[in-house]
Amino acid sequence: MASLALSRLSADERKALIDQLHAAQHGHCFICEQTIDLVLHNGELDIDHVVPLKLAGKDDSSNFALTHSSCNRSKQASNLEIARTLHRFKALKEALEPENRSPNLGDILQQHGGGNSQLAFKLDEQGVQFSFPAIGDAAIYRVPLYVDELSGFRYFFAKLPIQYLRHDDRINPRAIGGNIGKLMEEFNQKRPQLHVPLGWISSAEGKSAVHIFDGQHKAAAQIMLGVKDLPVRVFIDPDPNTLITANTNAGTTLKQVAFDKSVQRHLGSTLYQDRIERFRTETNRGPDDLTFSERDLVNYFKGQSREVKRYVLDSVRDAVTSSADNLLRDFIDYGGRGKERPLSYSSIDKTFYSFFIFQEVLETPLDHLSESGENPRELETSQLIQLMNLIAEEIYIDKFDTDIGTDKIESRLQKGDQFPLDHLRAFRMSKEEVIYNWLRYIQQIAKFYFINAGKPIQEEKLFQYRFPDQLWNNIRNFVRNLAALPLWANKDLSSTVFGGKQNNSFWQTVFESGKSPHGVTVMPKGINLVEMIQ
Questions:
Q1: Average pLDDT for residues 429-447, to the nearest whole number?
Q2: What's the helix, strand, coil split of the chain in %, to 5?
Q3: What is the chain's mean pLDDT, rounded?
Q4: Cys-Cys link to 183, which of 221, 224, 472, 473 (CB 3.0-4.6 A)?
Q5: What does pTM read for this prediction?
Q6: CA distances from 433 to 11, 354, 437, 503, 510 (A)
Q7: What is the distance between the alpha carbons of residues 522 and 511, in angstroms, rounded to a whole number?
């Protein structure tokens, strides 16, 4: 909404207002908090309302702020205070990128001075007593103690300073999602959210941090808005396996929250380790015993056989995804909504993990052939990482530019925009329907190698057989020759084969014949795998 107050200012009055706001803001942009130079940034500054007029903000100098024009154009919220907070959040995300992760509640707490104290408390049959000496509050508070009728867990409600809160990234490994700005807008407009964060404490020593495992987005939004105390439902000594299972089911079978697949896999991996520990304990085995199989676990937890099988496979996927040796993970968008990285986690899940991870449980002991380096699951994991590294080296590293990203590349090409060839190639080769097909060819190359070598294999366990150096050379040659095909650089194809979402069979036809199903010539001829591995 246009400002009448600003429109009525003369040039001198506007300059005076800019000088006044510049001084009040100590020479910094209200949004990005970086320096404003009145000479260097002349003509590139905006005066805007802190609280928008449509939200009853005043149209006078008390509600004005000075910003870089670029910051004001790209702001993520209409309220400038929220826009500034979101800019800080963006800076936090960028700082965590070298760790290959996004911020979670623990990072938000740390940024705002929280998460550094333990709650001392006393328990009796009637209630809980506690105090907050770490923040200078020596008063003793008492609240009732309840018992959950279904789980049997004891719990209490309390309003707790953020200094006593921690994020439990084992039970809830989710990062803060991109919708945090909308949630902050809701709180800022005085619309309370009804969900109370859930936490837990251990009573063993009478002192414990309060570990938040659910409701982190709402908690983070309030903390980012300056809230220093949060109401929390606190469980006392709950079974962690129950909480992990509940959190996993909320994001999978119950679909109560939008868990990213990578988070689901991580939780499944955690539950797999829990089932291993329970099996050892309940069958009187030693803490390092691995002489039982994945099948033994499925059979033992009979009522949970489907879940345990899923946990086994999630553990393999998570081992690949989270490996520090995995060079491809820097090019994977784990949230599935970003525009900076070429590969979505969903695409990785549907291709690499579906094609190259054996989808059934193994009958051999968990430590089978471990001493010789031929353990099936370990070999499967390490070779899948090796394949992903090979692809990263040939297609993405020093080639795909995350600053350019993936947003509307084909439509921008049609409008005359220019992109580096390496970047365009990586972008096009990363389309899910494209990578689905060329990864299938890698699978065929590996199978045919073993056939030609006279070695019988179980095809569904392909990556559990060690690949010789010559096979790796064949795969690298294939990827390199595939990347060299002219179609990836052909800008004329942006309005045809690359112009919209195609299906897997579309690209299967292109690679086999050189033409699209509609007869558009994409390549001079179809792919010859024998030639491609030379």
A1: 96
A2: 50, 15, 40
A3: 91
A4: 221
A5: 0.66
A6: 57, 14, 7, 6, 11
A7: 9
Q: Which residues contact 140 (CB under 8 A, 6 or more apart)?
A: 129, 130, 131
Say if residues 463 and 357 touch (Cβ distance below 8 Å). Answer: yes
For the cut 90, the answer to whether the pLDDT of residue 456 exceeds it is yes
Q: Per-residue pLDDT averaged across 93-120, rounded?
A: 91
Other CB atoms closer than 10 Å to residue 393's CB: what's the count?
Answer: 16
- Strand residue runs (E) in 187-331: 198-201, 207-208, 210-214, 229-236
pLDDT of residue 516: 92
* 472 burial type by CB count under 10 A (0-12 exposed, 13-18 middle, 19+ buried): middle
Token pair recorded at residue 100: 């290959």
Looking at residue 258, the DSSP 8-state letter turns out to be -
Helix (H) / strand (E) containing 327:
none
For residue 338, the model assigns a pLDDT of 67
What phi and psi values does residue 440 have, to the nearest 5 degrees? -60, -35
pLDDT of residue 190: 84
Could you give the domains of the chain? Answer: 4-75 (3.40.1800.10), 105-240 (3.90.1530.10), 323-532 (no CATH)
- How far is 81 from 164, CA to CA, in rounded Å? 26
Which of these, 334, 369, 360, 327, lies nearest to 348 by C-alpha position? 334
Bridge partners of residue 49, in order along the sequence: 64
Determine the 3-state secondary structure of 5 from DSSP: helix
Q: What is the pLDDT of residues 224-280, one digit of tens each?
A: 999 999 999 999 999 988 888 887 776 666 555 545 566 667 777 888 888 999 999
Token pair of 287 as six digits: 């803490």
- The most distant pair of C-alpha atoms in the chain lies apart, rounded to whole Å, by 87
End-to-end CA distance of the chain: 64
Is residue 198 within 8 Å of 212, Cβ to Cβ?
Answer: yes
- For residue 35, the 8-state DSSP code is B
